Amino acid sequence: MRYEYFARNAAEEYVKQGIADGSTFPDMDLYIDQMVACLNKELSLYGDKGEGPVSKGMVSNYTKHKMIPGPEGKKYTKDHLYFMLLVFYLKNSLSMDQIQRLMAPVIANYESEWDDHLELGKSIQMYMQKLREKEAGLPEEIDRMIAEIKSAMESVGEEDDTLELISMIFSLIMRSNAERYVAEQLLAEYFGKKK
Q1: Which residues contact residue 7 at a Cβ distance below 8 angstroms, ignoring those fewer than 6 apart?
Q2: 170-184 in b/e burial notation, b at 16+ Cβ within 10 A?
Q3: Percentage of the chain surpassing pLDDT 70?
Q4: Which end of the chain is more exposed for a tag (fewer CB within 10 A), N or C?
């Protein structure tokens, strides 16, 4: 399969399955094994060779580092699933310290006896729906990027598929870097450095 079709298929697959919103999370408390199974089902696109992307060790580590709140007894609530969903999406772009700083006010609200609790699940579902609508055009955007790269290559007399593919990968990575830079600047400005 030529890379153009592969890239478009990957974009279509992401639009269909890559933006999990937790809408299938059960309304019951779960033990850690059940929590991991639930998350791995929701995030199956990110798994590898039949194994899900989330492990018990990850959940324990994120709890230990105060990226998600601790369990209630030995059980995790639906809110814990949403916390894990957030951390899962953040972990490939931010350091553990950055995630801790970002999640600290959300965890403080969750653990507060005085504050009105944020409706984390409802907020995530609403946001993910908006993101899904925005990303619906991703396959067409991928097609436009490929066309722009082909046009630029032709303008300099290059017709090498490997160079096109490298240019495509580089373009996607640079877009990701730009967006991550802006996110990191916002995090540093509004969530400060760890004291």
Answers
A1: 142, 146, 168
A2: eeeeeeeeeeeeeee
A3: 98
A4: C
Q: In this structure, what token pair is assigned to residue 169?
A: 């990968």
Q: How far apart are CA 78 and CA 21, in angstroms?
A: 12
Q: CA–CA separation, 117 vs 111, rounded Å?
A: 9
Pick out the chain residues at pLDDT < 50.
195
Residue 170 amino acid letter: F
Compute the distance between CA of residue 144 and CA of residue 159 in angstroms, rounded to an integer: 18
Task: Give 161-166 contacts, CB < 8 A, sequence gap 24+.
Answer: 161/2, 161/3, 164/3, 165/3
